[in-house]
Each structure stands twice: as C-alpha cells, then as structure tokens.
Amino acid sequence: MIQDQASIGVDTHFTFSSDILTQTRMWLQTARRRLYSEVLERWEIPGNNPMSVNQAFLMATRHGGLALRRDDLGIIAPGAKADLVLWNTKGSPSLLGWNDPVAAIVLHASVGDVEAVLVDGKWVKKKGRLLAKGYYDGFEERFLKSARRIQDKLIQTRPEIPDTWLNGLPIGKASTVDSLRGNGNGYGETFLAVNGTQ
Q1: Host H or E run for residue 87
Q2: Which of 21, 94, 106, 137 has the fewest CB atoms within 10 Å, i.e. is most exposed?
Q3: 82: part of which helix (H) or strand (E)?
Q4: What is the DSSP letter of 124?
C-alpha cells in the first residue's frame, strides 16, 4: 500500500517473465485482485478501482529511478539520461483504437510492440530491430548449449528440498491446481500420458 519508493523490476528470470511489461501487468492484476477480494469478502461489490494503470506504469518506469534516488531517470528533460522506449500503436491489433496510451501499453502491449529504444542518447533498437551489430552472433547457440548443460545437471542431481529455508523459516507446501478432467492434475507422468508429450 506504500508505493512512493517502490518500483517493479525483473530479476528472477527462471521463475517470472523476463520483460517489464508482463511483470507490470501481473503486479497490477495481483494488487487489484487482492484489494477487490477484501470488498467481495464483505459481500459487497467493488465501486472503485484500487490501482490505476498510471500507477503501474510509473512503477515500471519513473519509480525505478526514484527507488535508486536518481531524479535524472524516467523523465524527459535537459540533463536527464536519454532513455526512451517507443511503442508502435498502429502495428498491433491489441493497441488499435485506444485513447489512453498508458492503459493500452500496461493492459495490452507486448515486447513485440516496441518500435524503438534509445539508451543514453543512442538508438539500440529501430523499426523493431536491434542495432547491436555482432552482439548476437553465435549467441543463441551458446545460450542453448549452456541451458541444456545446466538443465541436465539439475535433472541428474535432483536436490533434496530442506525442511527450513536459509533464515530458519519452515518450508511449506502450496496447494496445487487441477485443471484436467479425470485423474491427474497436470504434474508428472499423468499429464505426459494424457497429452502425449515429452
């Protein structure tokens, strides 16, 4: 509820989305669900919006700079860092017809809608294409090789889950969701057999 120095970040890529737009959308939806639930649990209908798209957008942009105590980040002004992201609102069906660009970006945009990016006054993406020449040469092959090596190692070791976390708190078990008909819940062998995938 106290968000004057809070910001949204992307740091745990193996668990969450690696793009700030998705993280922002999840944060907004989670905050709204939690605060709407409080009203619904009193058997009332929510009559207001508990968090606006503008608040979510600021937490993903300007507030990142403010959280770092950097007044020169997240603004367009003389002396500020020249970091800009431009969205193509005509090239994506999900962004057509909106009169509120912030709502369109927060609720409907994807990273594929980013037309151009300016970092520290230099274009790093234009017309939807990255401009870093040579940077990605061989990157995909090296990344996939490294990912496979790490995944294989984790599968082989199957680490034991401890009873307590590093700070001494007990490790609990979350309830699981069952979205499949019949036996099984989408975890393990039952899911693989039902869907014929590996």
Answers
A1: strand 84-87
A2: 137
A3: none
A4: E
24 with 106: CB under 8 angstroms? yes
**Dihedral angle over CA of 116, 121, 124, 129, nearest 10:** 30
Q: Are 107 and 97 in contact (CB under 8 A)?
A: no
Q: Taking a C-beta distance cutoff of 8 angstroms, is the pair 81, 135 a contact? A: no
* Eight-state DSSP code of residue 175: -
Please state whether 43 falls in left (phi above 0), alpha (psi between -120 and 50) or beta. Answer: left
Domain definitions of the chain by residue range: 1-75
Q: What whole-number distance in Å separates Cα of residue 11 and Cα of residue 19? A: 10
Nearest to 127 by CA among 170, 161, 91, 174: 91
Let me know: does 8 contact 24? Beta carbons within 8 Å.
yes
Cα 132 to Cα 124: distance, rounded to the nearest angstrom: 6
Burial per residue of 176-191, b for 16 or more beta-carbon CB atoms within 10 angstroms, e otherwise: eeeeeeeeeeeeeeee
